[in-house]
Design brief:
By secondary structure, the protein is of the alpha/beta class. It contains eight helices and 17 strands. The strands form four sheets. Strands 10-9-8-11-14-16-15-17 form an eight-stranded mixed sheet, sandwiched between helices. The two termini are 33 Å apart. The structure holds S-adenosylmethionine.
């Protein structure tokens, strides 16, 4: 979780969410908030920036007060830059903060140096969480502008010299090539969108490609697998149990070889209401009792049955 002075979900309802990021209060669409009612209309009057979708995935921001200079939020050792993009995102998914803490705990508890592959790595929060804990990281994303943004976040977090490779590439293509080259990893982090594009127009469809990608990631880590984290913000496979079953369908051995857990990604508002934001599946070679940072485990909604 973020410290409340860095990020807080203030309220949600009528298809929108109201959040405070550092000094700024932001009002933007949230499909998960459809059907809910706002708790405190007065809070919404304080929004400094409001986003409206206009055509397709794009839209525009309107500002009640000037946003001065670069803004950023902090989480532990990480400093993450915010930008008001035309897609309505700010470069941060705050509901992932528990996963960043879990990842850092996994690196520290492994007791050996780890090499981590981060796919769909976006602006790099997960990359930096594991780099700050001492891992070597390969960061892969299709969009060169978000890879540049991730590198700025590394610099702002004093991690510019950490052993991280920054790669602009289609995730599927990169993983296929790594297998051909015989490269291996200790851990993989994946946060795929429902639909996306590689830098050369390659198509990514979660429902179509996730099985193949997971199978290849398991091959990449077969010799020394320490942990895996799969998360998803998409409505298509938005439930933790579905992620869990998709993973176990391609790798039933994960159930026997370590601890597997699925949980909902969510944020809790000032009034204590939970906004559903997606799902995550965590697998670790550590037995459950040794899982570091139990507070970062999240809100478990389904546990796998014994094989
Ligand atoms: C949901 S975001 C990841 C969020 C990130 N893990 C975080 O917590 O901040 C999805 C990312 O996938 C990238 N992407 C989309 N299609 C891709 C593809 N075919 N190969 C690699 N990256 C892709 C997008 O550029 C975007 O940065």
């Amino acid at each position: 979780m973020f410290a409340p002075d860095q990020h807080q979900l203030l309220d949600f309802g009528a298809g929108r969410k109201l959040e405070r990021f550092g000094r700024y209060t932001v009002d933007r669409p949230s499909p998960a908030a459809e059907g809910a009612s706002e708790r405190d209309r007065n809070l919404w009057q304080q929004a400094d920036a409001r986003y409206e979708r206009s055509e397709g995935e794009r839209g525009t921001w309107s500002y009640r007060r000037r946003i001065d200079g670069p803004c950023a939020v902090r989480h532990g050792l990480l400093t993450l830059e915010l930008k008001f993009t035309e897609f309505g995102h700010l470069g941060i998914f705050p509901e992932q903060a528990g996963n960043w803490d879990w990842l850092a705990g996994q690196i520290r508890a492994a007791g050996r140096p780890l090499k981590v592959l981060n796919l769909f790595a976006h602006t790099g929060a997960s990359t930096l969480a594991v780099a700050a804990a001492g891992a070597e990281v390969v960061h892969v994303d299709a969009a060169s502008n978000v890879v540049t943004w991730a590198r700025r976040n590394a610099k702002a977090s004093n991690l510019a010299d950490a052993p991280t490779r920054w790669i602009t590439e289609d995730a599927l293509k990169f993983v296929r090539r790594e297998l051909k080259r015989g490269n291996g990893y200790d851990a993989v982090i994946l946060d795929p969108p429902g639909y996306g594009h590689g830098p050369h127009g390659e198509t990514w469809k979660l429902a179509e490609h996730l099985g193949e990608l997971l199978t290849m990631c398991l091959e990449l880590t077969a010799a020394r697998r320490q942990f895996m984290l799969l998360s998803c913000h998409s409505g298509e496979l938005a439930f933790a149990s579905e992620l869990l079953h998709a993973t176990l369908a391609v790798a039933p051995e994960l159930r026997r070889e370590g601890t597997i857990q699925a949980h909902e990604l969510s944020l809790v508002s000032l009034a204590g209401d939970r906004l559903h934001c997606g799902a995550a599946m965590r697998w670790s070679a550590l037995p459950e009792a040794d899982h570091p940072n139990p507070a970062a485990r999240g809100h478990t909604i389904e546990r796998p049955r014994e094989a």
